Amino acid sequence: MGDMMNLVNLVEKVKNKERLTQKEGEALYELDLYTLGELADDIRQERFGKKSYFNINRHINPTNICADICKFCAYSASRKNPNQYTMSHEEILTIVDNSYKLGAKEIHIVSAHNPNDGVDWYMGAFRKIKEKYPSLHIKAMTAAEIDFLTREYGISYDEVIDLMIENGVDSMPGGGAEIFDETVREYLCKGKVTSSQWLDIHRKWHERGRESNATMLFGHIESRADRIDHILRLRTLQDETGGFNAFIPLVYQRENNFLKVKDFPTGQEILKTYAISRILLDNIAHIKAYWVTASINLALIAQEFGCDDLDGTIEKESIQSSAGAKSANGMGLDDFVNMIKSGGFTPVERDSLYNELKIYE
Ligand code: V47
Hints:
Blueprint: H1 4-15, H2 22-28, H3 33-48, E1 51-55, E2 57-60, H4 89-101, E3 106-109, H5 119-132, E4 137-140, H6 143-153, H7 157-166, H8 182-189, H9 195-207, E5 212-218, H10 224-241, E6 244-251, H11 267-280, E7 286-287, H12 291-294, H13 296-302, E8 309-312, H14 319-322, H15 333-342, E9 346-350, E10 356-359
This protein binds ligand V47.
The site of ligand V47 has 23 residues, from strand 5, strand 6 and helix 14.
């Protein structure tokens, strides 16, 4: 692949909505940005027109003490962050009280892998939130956290999943996927949930009739081929279960961590990766430009490159802001809505499962 004729054929294939292979996915990067953007935008517009989805959510990261060692992480207190913390249930509930008053519909909880806190600490927090606010959607427990609990406490994936459901977790976030290629993964985060375990845990969750998201951490030491491989492994699982709502390419943030990276991705490379995700993932409805890692301005442009979702207002964010992202204090609702509008898109407040709640015409 690579010569002009083959690229012309590739464009035709995309227009005809034919499924692309690994090699064809890699070849998409050879198209110029505008051609690629137009292909992705056609798919996006056919499905969602000019609608751009977001939700009013609050991220809570209840502890940063971590047993695992991921080179890209600046949040974990076991690496460069000397300020260890673990929130009590009362502290978590106080945050939820405030967020509820401010209009949050979703609480997104992601913790480090804290060996000092038992399964009860995790589950008790979910239960207390759900008892007090039954209408709040709890998106919690990455596959990496589930895997950590099974390793630490000798219980099975099924048992953790049962507990999550019993204690009020509604959906699973997409974290912990990083990059599925085993060699790169071994270098990045040896010892953490493996790629096949990550997929297996989501499969189990979907088999219970539940929904989840999937992420990909990119722009560090992985190759373009590794990204395509990651995306296609998700496409294969989605064919089987249909349980993924959104795919979220996370742009690697470089500060305060132990990963040495030579070349950071350009805006062009990031936009191409969003567009390619939209083209390859013919079975995952939503592609999220997570403004936290893309920067808000690039996320707004990504709406023209296949992305139909910008996550949400967030309120507070600790993982990526520890590594340099400008997201520590989230984004005000009015600003968020106005920026989407002035970019020519229609902001649509959604719930966590993409039911439309309010259209800002
Ligand atoms: O899995 C860690 C990533 C993820 C860095 O499901 C980093 O809706 C960039 O998964 N640079 C957790 N990223 C966050 C996450 C997420 C975020 C928003 C929405 C959803 C969703 C999920 O944060 C981890 C890891 O890949 N991360 N360090 C870093 N230096």
